Amino acid sequence: MPYPRLASPYNLRHKTVRNRITFGAHTANMAQDGLPGPQFGAYLLERALGGAGMIVCEPVPVHRTGVLTRGNFRHEDDSVIPAFRRIVEPVQDAGAVILQQLYHVGAHGDSDLSFAPHWSPSGLPSYHDSEGSHAMTEAEIEEIIAAFIAAARRCQQAGFDGVEIWAAYHSLLDQFWTPWSNRRDDQWGGTLENRTRLSMRILDGIRRACGEDFIVGLSVSQSQNTEVLNSPEALCEIVARHDATGHLDYVTCGAGGYLDFEHLMPTFVLGEKPTVSTTAELKSTLTHAKVQAEAGIRTPENAESVLSAGEADMVSIVRGQIADPHLARKMTEDRAEDIRGCISCNQMCWGRRSRDYWISCLINPSAGREYLWGGDRFTPAETPRHVLVVGAGPAGLEAARVAAERGHRVEIHEAAPLIGGQFRLAGQQPRRAPDPRPARLVRASVRPARRHSPSQLLSRSGRNSRHRTRPRGARHRLTP
Question: What are 301-348's pLDDT values in tens digits?
């Protein structure tokens, strides 16, 4: 096994997780009338079938003041319970542990969608956008505590194995933790004990309401580029207070946030594994909760190196599993070379989400369309044929890959000396080196082929010369 630590199981509360690869929480924006439907269900199920050990479902706003996108799930509404149950059960049957993230964005909300003021500790403006916020009263703080606990109970009734409390990216809980944004002089501000009172009450309340056989995680983030936010050392001290209760089962650490947006979903211009220094510090600090690293971990090699170095107990690979939902299974089957790797372009995941559409993937068009296409899997052809593909750019390679997956005998002919088309040209940019193994996407070997005339190519594809297709020659033959 080339990735022994990544493939090893571990225990969270009452559950054994089959490996250390998590498909972490992110906004897929696929709700239909505020409810999860076939699109979202098939999207999660494909990653469970693909071998992910744990899946953390898209966050649900716990309160009316926390709505952020048109695709948010319904808040404070029991109608989500049967809808989520229809999604949770197939994921669990496929072998994955599934949780749901609970969130409130605080000052960074969207009143155009929530039709409510943004609640925050001290009424400061967002600084992520141009809107202001409302300083919460003590009664409103108690209302938010009750909303988190009620949301966790709905998750339990829907069959989720647990919840993840979102305190990352300078969200509401992080705003209370941070002295710069929490300027209160009552029991909810000032000292560390007071600033963590809200999140500690939520954690204790969820554990009391949902019992011991229910996983509770905590999502945090670190930013070393914004001085007003908590330092990694302060973050570790905050998380340690929650860990000391014994109620917290794991903490997951991301990068960036609403005040450091560039690092929230690191693109190809940024370095790999940006959070591991903080997760390593968390591991040396905490005594109960496991530690998960996320952000900029896209490949099994990177993930295994984090675990081998003792910098985390598990890893969250989100964009990598959007790009290839079967990443975990291929890793355990010693087929890492077959993984369709994420290129951190952010064009169809964050790019579509930022325009409030449901997400997809530039290199995996099945993402978000699993319910229409039957996932990222293929039914073998009843009558395998010999398929000729002219042109080895992205479209030609994808056509060849799909045909080969279905059992057809595939040849690709390309005029250029190298395959890849315009993607190879784009790959000449710094930190966008072209994948040296593109042919593996069609499970084929690349070998020289003699040049053919246009009429010969047309003859091989079963056509005649009237089609006027004029390929300039052939350089590669790919066979399954």
Answer: 989 999 999 999 999 999 999 999 999 999 989 998 889 888 888 888
- Is 294 within 8 Å of 303 (Cβ atoms)? no
Residue 477 near residue 411 (C-beta atoms within 8 A): yes
Read off the pTM. 0.88
3-class secondary structure per residue, 34-95: CECCHHHHHHHHHHHHCCCCEEEEEEEECCHHHCCCCCCCCCCCCCHHHHHHHHHHHHHHCC
Report DSSP state, residue 163: E
Separation between Cα atoms, residue 233 and residue 166, nearest integer Å: 19
Gap between the Cα atoms of 239 and 393, Å rounded: 48
DSSP 232-287: HHHHHHHHHHHHTTS---EEEEEE-BTTBGGGTS--TTSPS-TTHHHHHHHHHH-S
What are the tokens at 232?
Answer: 């990694």
The pLDDT tens digits for 365-393 are 999 999 999 988 888 999 999 999 999 99
- The radius of gyration of the chain's CA atoms, rounded to the nearest angstrom, is 24
In 3D space, the residue among 29, 37, 15 whose CA is nearest the CA of residue 215 turns out to be 15
Which long-range CB contacts under 8 A does 423-430 form with residues at least 24 apart? 423/393, 423/394, 430/269
Q: How many residues does the chain have?
A: 480
